[in-house]
Amino acid sequence: MNFYPILLLMALLHAYVGWRVLPGLGAYPQGQVLLLVVLVLSTLLMPLGLLGSRVVRQPWADRLSWVGLLLMGLFSSLFVLTLLRDVALLLLWLADALTPLALPLAQWRTASAEVVPVLALLVTLLGFLNARRTPAVVRVDVPIRGLPSALQGFTVAQISDIHVGPTIKGAYLQRIVNRVNGLRADMVAITGDLVDGKVAELAGHVAPLAGLKSRHGTFFVTGNHEYYSGAHAWVAELRRLGLTVLMNEHVVLHHGKAAHTALTPLGDPQEDEHIMAPLVLAGVTDYSAHHFDEAHRSDPQTALEGSPLAASVRLLLAHQPRSAAAAARAGFDLQLSGHTHGGQFYPWNLFVRFQQPFTNGLHKLQNLWVYTSRGTGYWGPPKRFGAPSEITQLRLVAG
C-alpha cells in the first residue's frame, strides 16, 4: 500500500473541512486553534491507524492504531456534517436570492460552523460507547415451510464481523462468548470477518472461541478479511481450536429428542419416540475468495452436493449477502450472512445497498430467507451510530 497518495487525499479532505468551518469560528479563537490541531493530527494519523503494525512494533502499533482510528471516526462525522452544512447554506442562499425574505445568512454561517464540531464530537462519543459495549441479543423467528416437528424451535446463535485486531482483543471476544453460551443454542455460526491480522499476532486473542458451547458445535465460514490476513493459516488455527470450518461443503445435523422407554403406572413399557430430523448445514468461502485463491471460489451448489434429498431444511452460511442469488438457485431455505455491518454508522448505511442486496435483517429472495447480521464487532473506527452491533438468536418455526 502506497502511503503518500493516501496522505495526499486525506490532506485535501481535511483542508476542505478547515476551509469551510474554521472561518466561522472567529468568535472562538481557542476553538479555531483546537480544531486546526485536530485536523492536522487527523491528516497524519488516520492513515497510520490502518497501517500501525507495518510502521512500528507492539505495543506502540496498537496505540497508534487506536489514536488514528478514533480520529478517523471523528473526521468522518466532521466531513459529512460539513457537506450537509454546505448544502443547507446553498439552499438558504438560493432562497434569499429568489425571494424577498432577507435571510440572516451571516448568522447562519457562524452558528452552523459552531454546531459542526460539537455535533461531530457528540456523535463520535456516542458511537464509541455503542461500539465498545457487549452486543445485545437480537431474536429472530424464521418460518420454514414443511418444517419437521423435530426441528421446531431449532436455534442458531450467529456472530459475525468481530474483527479481532488492533482495538478488539481477547477480553472483548470473551464477553461475546459468555453471552452466546448463555443462549444455550443448538448450534453457533460465525459468518466471517473474524480477524484483522495474522495468526502469529492474534491467535491468543481468538482463543476464547474454543469455549463456545452448543448442542451441535460451532461452524465458521471465511470472510474477505480472512483473506487479507492469511486465510489458510486461520482455517488451520480455527480447526485446531475445535471449530468446524466449512469450505464449499456441508455437514448433516440430526436433531430431535432421542427415543426412550418409560413405564406406565401399571408397569408396562411405553415408547416415547421423537423422530430425529436431518438438517443440512453448508458453508461457502467468501464471495471474493477466488481473487486470492482460485481453489477457494465460492460455490453454494458445490456445497450442497451429496446432501440427503430427504432433508427438509437446508441452511447456508455465506459471509456476503450477495451469495443469495446462487444460494436460491441451489435450493437453500435460509442463508445467514454478515459483511455489511448494517452500515456501522450514519450515513454509510445509506450506501451499502449499492454493493449488497440486503443491508441488515430478514429478507426473502424467491424461496430463500436471508438474514444479514449488523455484525458483532466493528471495522476501523470504534464507532457505531444508527447500526448497533448484535448477537443473533435465530429460531426455526413452522411456516
Strand order of the largest sheet: 1-14-2-3-4-5
Summarize model confidence as the mean pLDDT: 92
The share of residues in extended strands comes to: 15-25%
- For the CA atoms, what is the radius of gyration? 25 Å
Transmembrane segments: 33-52, 64-95, 115-131
Keywords: Hydrolase, Membrane, Metal-binding, Transmembrane, Transmembrane helix
Domain Calcineurin-like phosphoesterase: 155-342
InterPro entries: Calcineurin-like_PHP, Metallo-depent_PP-like, Metallophosphoesterase_sf
Structural key phrases:
Metallo-depent_PP-like; elongated; membrane; six-stranded mixed beta sheet; hydrolase; transmembrane; Purple Acid Phosphatase, chain A, domain 2; single chain; 18% strand
Structure description:
By secondary structure, this protein is α/β, with parallel strands linked by helices. It folds into 2 domains: 3-132, no CATH class; 136-398, Metallo-dependent phosphatases (Purple Acid Phosphatase, chain A, domain 2, 4-Layer Sandwich), CATH 3.60.21. It has 10 helices and 14 strands. Strand 3, helix 6 and strand 4 (218-220) form a beta-alpha-beta unit. Helix 1 runs antiparallel to helix 2 (29-55) and helix 1 (3-21) packs across helix 3. The longest helix is centred in the N-terminal third of the chain and has 39 residues, at 60-98. The protein is elongated. The model is unreliable at 259-264 and 269-273 (pLDDT under 50).
